[in-house]
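Researcher: I need the complex structure. Ligand is BQF. Inputs:
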Amino acid sequence: MVLIDGKATANQIKNEIAEEVKAITSKGERAPHLAAVLVGNDGASLTYVGSKVRSCEKVGFDSSLIRLPEETTEQELLAKIEELNQDETLDGYIVQLPLPKHIDEEKVLLAIDPKKDVDGFHPSNFGRMALELETFIPATPFGIMQLIERYDIDTQGKHVVVIGRSHIVGRPISILMSQKGAYGNATVTVAHSRTKDLKALTQQADIIVSALGIPGFVTADMVKEGVVIIDVGITRVEDASKEKGYYITGDVDFDSVAQKASYITPVPGGVGPMTIAMLLKNTLLARKWNA
Ligand code: BQF
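Model: Output:
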């Protein structure tokens, strides 16, 4: 069994990005600049944007964290987005999800200039991805593809079962893995809450990508010997004995499934850190494409 070390791979990618930043700034050009908009005070969201900002500093990017109060109206947020679209010192930005319930997420994503949409969530970027045009690939699926590539996992003609059809993970990874290419050409099944007999599907799977958010959902009896496991689930479980008052865990019953797997990603330290690294990668691409 090979443990896929997302943390080490993400650090390697960050080091590669830092080298590119040095090459840019040594020419006298400004460093890439990423901004993040956070509406409200959700604890997990604060953690996520915090690590995005810290990662920017680590690779030599400029970063801006724009915090807006929970009560911010949709109109006020759209005005801020218009401002960011016009800001020529900014290469890319993200709006941290989820947004408060009184704000229409779809409207907000549509307002982001696709050229600055480093999360790749704008419909035109999603469409470009589906059509294999140059674009920003959403950070989590981009990170999964990088792990598959850097661990040289064979996907040709393999059966991939994706559990979950979210716009951010399940749907895009299903598209990417079925595309032509060295780390594509897979046959992909997208399973979801209405899927009948999921176990019969996962038992057939060469590769399982689980993006569900239910701890321990994928158990050893559901997988075959030699399976590749990509665990995208991130659930916070309250635990007073932990320093932070919680621990994070994935969708996969790691200890039992690892015994049958050829490759497996841990949680934490698997796909999560890659998400941050690929956001930086997209910002560097924005810097290049918009120059
Ligand atoms: C790790 C996210 C759900 C909803 C909105 C490292 C992250 C997570 C885990 C991280 C996520 C999840 C992010 C680990 C960003 C991934 O060591 O396992 C990093 O920061 N993520 C987000 O910005 O918004 C989310 C999940």
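Model: Summary of the prediction. Residues 48, 51, 97, 234, 267-270, 272-273, 275-276 surround BQF (CB under 6 Å).
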